Amino acid sequence: MPPDETPPRFPFSHRGDALGPEYRDLQEHRPIARVLTPTGERAWLVTDHTLAVRAFEDDRLSLVRAAAPGSPRQTVQAMPADAIASMSAIEHAGLRKEFLAAISPPRVVEMRPWARTTARAMLDSLAAADRPADLFRHYAEALPLAHTCRVLGMPFDDAAPLIERVETAMPIRERPAVDYAANWAGLHGYFLSLLARADLPDGAVRRYRENNDARPPEQRVDDHVLAETLAWFFGASHIGAVSVLAHTLVSLLAQRDAWDRLCELRAAPGPAVEELLRHSLFLHNGLPRVATDDVDLGGVTIGAGELVLISADTANRDPAAFPGPDRIDLDRDTRGHLAFGRGANYCPGSALGRMTLQVAIEELTRRFPTMYLAVPLGEIEWRDDLLDRRPVAIPVRW
To answer: Which family does it belong to (predicted)?
Structure first.
């Protein structure tokens, strides 16, 4: 691109039913290219799978620097700086282990029977709904939200009113600053009140509080900081898990051979789950990194301090890595997919994400093998205001 040419504005498409042509063009001709973020910042966009792996594994491309004050930003900062800094405070105090323990593989295995019971109850409600029914509201959104509440140990009835606040706190388009401040105050206030409850069930919130209370007074983390971290964790868990499941269900219902195969198996084997994760176009934005030094990537020199966006979902649709990438192939070797990232910042919630997706698909295909989309795929409306892609609704019949 000539130096005086204005880069294209990223992201290019908010739809989740197909990869936009702009992504394909860059992947083929300019796998690392200049783009403009929604904030107007210049960034490098990586769309090639091999280069994405290299970017994830290069310690000079830093996630920590991407979150630091003054670094170039991909999206508006809808959370106050204190909330972002709270994560560092929690890490320094040694309390982050409570979150990691709550979503560790052994804890997720223990949670699986409850997850199945919960999914079946939600499908009972779906069966009683008028048709066409909204699979997104009744299931794709509700089930991951229930899982997040279970992990945290918070009442499920409290969660639904928080969804709009979470979405406001993680936007891709700018709104008035006063809206963000008021929204965060409400989200933070809820978790501050949750920490004060004496009757919390076992979960990350209670263990978090007990661990903090057991520390010497001078080493305790202030409740306001704990509440900010809980709000962040709740939001991040909700946005990602819902988007993955919603996109996967739309894709399966659109590609009937894969849907019918899962119905026949009455199971979603591990390799099938990995293929569905690879196929999912749930990341509306890129995964940000900031260069701490000059870095050569794919013949391009990224200057120290520059922003790099790794488009993991585009890389997962790279035909050089996964032939016929737009087709769901349940027998495909998907080793190397980047749905949970790679390297030091590999998503710590991967075990929970895999379990949620597997249980959701198995229970749905067993209960409603004749389910189908009630509208043509192209008529499904997709949100264009969030960090992750998700449909407004998934109308279905059976």
So the answer is: Belongs to the cytochrome P450 family.
Q: Find out whether 136 and 380 touch, Cβ atoms under 8 Å.
A: no
C-alpha pair distances (Å), 143 with each of 305, 362, 398: 40, 13, 20
Q: Which numeric CATH code is attached to 21-397?
A: 1.10.630.10
> HEC profile for 168-213?
HHCECCCCCHHHHHHHHHHHHHHHHHHHCCCCCCCCHHHHHHHHHH
Predicted TM-score (pTM) of the model is 0.92
Q: What are phi and psi for residue 396, nearest 5 degrees?
A: -135, 155
What average pLDDT does the structure give for the chain?
90
Site of tokens 């993680």: 170
Residue 385 in this model has a pLDDT that exceeds 80: yes
In sign, the C-alpha dihedral spanning 104, 105, 111, 115 is positive
DSSP string, 361-375: HHHHHHH-TT-EESS
What ranges make up the beta strands (E) of 294-357? 295-297, 300-302, 307-310
Which residues on adjacent β-strands are paired with residue 397? 372
Place of tokens 């990350």: 204
